[in-house]
Structures are given as structure tokens and as C-alpha cells.
# Entry
Amino acid sequence: MSRAGASPEPSHASGGEPPAPQHVAIIMDGNGRWAKARGLPRTAGHERGVEALRRTVEAAGDLGIKYLTVFSFSTENWRRPAAEVNVLFGLLKAYVQRDLQRLKHEGVRVRIIGQREGLPPDIAELVGRAERETAGNSAFHLTIAFNYGSRNEILRAAEAYARSLREAGDTGPLTEEMFSSFLDTSGLPDPDLMIRTSGEYRISNFLLWQAAYAELLFMDVLWPDFGRAHLEGAIAKYHERERRFGAVVPGAS
Ligand code: IPE
Ligand code: IPE
Ligand code: MG
# Structure
């Protein structure tokens, strides 16, 4: 990334491109099919998927996106063979170990969302360190959803809210803002654009609460092939959408 956020003002101010979506969420899907098409083991697809993630983080910063949230391992992915799960955990670990210092230097704030319980201690320690070391950054926000499922997140938030009631007493009616603050994504804006690669048309338990008004884009590319041009194409599609948030757009018949 050419120091993420170094030029945070998109060029639309001078009459050029409209602003990029502030927050893009991506369901990085299709690693297994990418590998299968080449006669390779599924894990080779996951390895190439990490390279696609690196390309995408860099491109997102350059294109003026401030928040990128990627789905890396779901609470349902535990249903996969243990060997594949181990590789996915190893790849997260290697990614954080290899890229943390560079991301930190580039002003990237790293967050990992999902259930910490159940993560191997070394990974829990590493992601905790990544979050602590980048907590002061704000040029770009990279959030990795790992051992994440939206229903699990909402349940944990409900439990945390109930705990707060027991400890602090009744604080009045529960608002959407208050409930959001108990979610793993507390402090992040809602995604404007949610992309899923690989041609599947489903959300697979990703950001169910947060994506209430996200624009959804399903792309035919398999994740390991994803790169800057795909992200640019996705932003162009996003700009064709009319976001109404339930209201009537002025001038519409
Ligand atoms: C996405 O690719 C990575 C994870 C879900 C962990 P897949 O592994 O789901 O690849 P396909 O969908 O089987 O091709
Ligand atoms: C969603 O992909 C989870 C991630 C990309 C991490 P899956 O491949 O697990 O989803 P399904 O099984 O096709 O719904
Ligand atoms: Mg898949």
C-alpha cells in the first residue's frame, strides 16, 4: 500500500471520481475450486488466497477505501477436515507474523473479529498482539473475521448486554447503537458494499446485523484470482447503485 490513507481525500472533490465506499466487506470464497481446477490440493488454493488478500489490502488503501473486512474462517468451517482447518489456522498465523510490522508502519489498524474462545493459545496471543500494536493507527482499518459467525456474534453480544444489566442495572431501553456496541464490530461503520467471490449467492453467516443496508455484489471470480482490477470493477458497480435506506429519493416519480 502506498501508505494507506496518505491521500484520504478522493479526487471527486475536484470533479473527478465519486468517493469510494467507506467500508467494503468481502467473503473470500472459491479457494478450493481454484485449486481443484488445477489438480492441486485445496490447501494450495488457500495459500494463493493469502496473496489475493495482500493485493486487495494494498489496492483498497490506494482506491480510497478506509475499512476492509474480510471473512477468513467461519464458525461453520470447523466442519471441514482437521488437516484443512490446521492449514487455515497456520496461514492466518503466518500472515499476521509476516505482515504485521509492514501494516503497522503503513498506518493500518488490524482487528480480528469472531469468537476467541476455541482458538489455539498461540493464535489468540498473536491476534491480541496485532490488535494492541496497531491500536493507535487510523489510516486504514483491516478487520479479519476468523472463527466468526454472525449468529454466534449476536448471541455473545446478547450475553454481554445481559451481563451489563446485572452489573450496572437497567440503563433504559436497548437501542440499536447500544446493541451494536456489544458486537465484535463495535466502533466500525456498517459496510457499504459486501462482495462475495466464487459465484455463490449467499451470505453464509457474515455480518448479518451490520450488512442490513449494504449493497451486495456477487462476483464470478474465484478468490485466489481476485486483484486490483476486480476491486475497481466492484467499486464501479457500487457507483451504479442507488442507496435509498428505505426513503424516497428526491425527484423520483
Ligand atoms: C474460501 O474458499 C476459504 C474458506 C472458506 C476458508 P473455500 O475453501 O470455501 O473454497 P470453495 O468454496 O470450496 O471453492
Ligand atoms: C464462507 O465460505 C466463509 C468464508 C469465506 C470464510 P464457505 O465456503 O464456508 O461458505 P458455504 O459453505 O459455501 O456457504
Ligand atoms: Mg467456499
Confidence is low (pLDDT under 50) at residues 2-14.
